[in-house]
Design brief:
By secondary structure, the chain is mainly beta. The chain is built from one helix and eight strands, in the order αββββββββ.
């Protein structure tokens, strides 16, 4: 196997979405748009809670809107999480590459009180 540093340079990209309302149930709350034609999902994190969560909220990263497509990762908004705490999704995320140009953030269950968070998606561009 040959390692080509020119190929890997600049291939990892991160996307951030802020102000996601996680006090709504079964609703699309944001998206990561403009993704490349082929990529691996490397990391997905929820961070920057506006207040201390009650622990009920869960954010899911999906390949289609309105709960469609495949669920790629799930990040629970942890009890006691405050800014600058971070909640990571489960790993490994995906064994296969993804081709969706937009990934959607959807709540599975609401927090139970007003709460916003931010999310970051890190991918490896395979194009």
């Amino acid at each position: 196997m040959t390692y080509n540093p020119a190929w890997t340079a600049g291939r990892t990209r991160s996307y951030v979405v802020t102000g996601l309302d996680v006090n709504v149930g079964a609703t699309d709350i944001g998206s990561f748009a403009g993704l490349p034609a082929k990529y691996l999902v490397q990391d997905f994190y929820v961070f920057d809670a506006s207040t201390t969560p009650l622990g009920a909220a869960v954010v899911v990263l999906r390949t289609a809107a309105a709960g469609g497509g495949s669920a790629l990762a799930t990040a629970p908004v942890a009890v006691g999480m405050t800014s600058p705490s971070v909640t990571a999704s489960g790993a490994p995320l995906q064994a296969a590459y993804v081709t969706a140009s937009t990934l959607y953030l959807r709540t599975v269950s609401p927090n139970g009180a007003a709460l916003t968070v931010s999310a970051v998606l890190t991918i490896v561009d395979l194009t």
